[in-house]
Each structure stands twice: as C-alpha cells, then as structure tokens.
Specification:
single chain; alpha+beta; five-stranded antiparallel beta sheet; about 35% helix; globular
Length: about 120
C-alpha cells in the first residue's frame, strides 16, 4: 500500500503543536476518508517525547517519474491546507516534513516556495 509520511518539524515540537497537528490530520482523515496512522518518532541522537509522532497517510501515490520533483502535488497541498482553520495551523502544517515511501526508498517532498511565503 502507498503512503505519504508527515513528520512535524523538530524545531516546533511541543505538546501543544503536536496535538494541533494530530487534530488537523484527524480532520483531514475525516474529510478525505483517509487512513492516517500515528507512529512514535525515534531518533538515534536523542530521546523524543512520547507525544512526538510521525504520521503515515495512506493514499495513492503517483509513481516516480525520475524527474526529481521535490514538491507535493497541487492536490496534496490543497488537501493538507483545506482542513486548516487559521493561519497558524497553515504555518504549522507547512513546517512539517513530507515524504513518499516507495518500496526501495523514501523521497522527501515540500510545499512550493511561493505557497510558503503567502500569508
């Protein structure tokens, strides 16, 4: 099964921010009928708090085309941002790291720069 990963920015880790991200993704799951599974973030460098989770967002992922595209698809950006209720939630979701999990590797994705700078 294909999925996209959402990992909150380590610089933004607080119980409040992690709960907000969890709630935003719960709304996204409900609106778009997606299975979103939280998992504990584990690092070798340091201990992470129990509330710091990464999320597997199970959805159809476009096959790799080899062009090195580093951005989320327009539909994915809209899906993520459409459930945000205020500008703070938008910025919080834009600060997350996104990635596609393919059988052989992980490919990082991000919002397009012009979308990051808009407020």
């Amino acid at each position: 099964m294909n999925y996209m990963i959402c990992i909150p920015s380590p610089q933004m880790v607080s119980r409040d921010n992690c709960e907000r991200i969890h709630n935003i993704l719960a709304r996204m799951s409900e609106v778009y009928k997606l299975n979103i599974v939280p998992e504990q973030v584990k690092t070798k460098m340091s201990q992470t708090p129990d509330y710091y989770k990464k999320y597997r967002i199970y959805k159809e992922i476009k096959e790799r085309d080899g062009n090195g595209e580093a951005y989320l698809l327009q539909e994915e950006e809209e899906m993520i941002l459409s459930v945000c209720r205020n500008p703070e939630e938008v910025e919080l979701m834009k600060s997350c790291t996104y990635a596609y999990q393919y059988p052989a590797n992980l490919v990082l994705k991000s919002f397009r720069e012009e979308k990051r700078e808009r407020r």
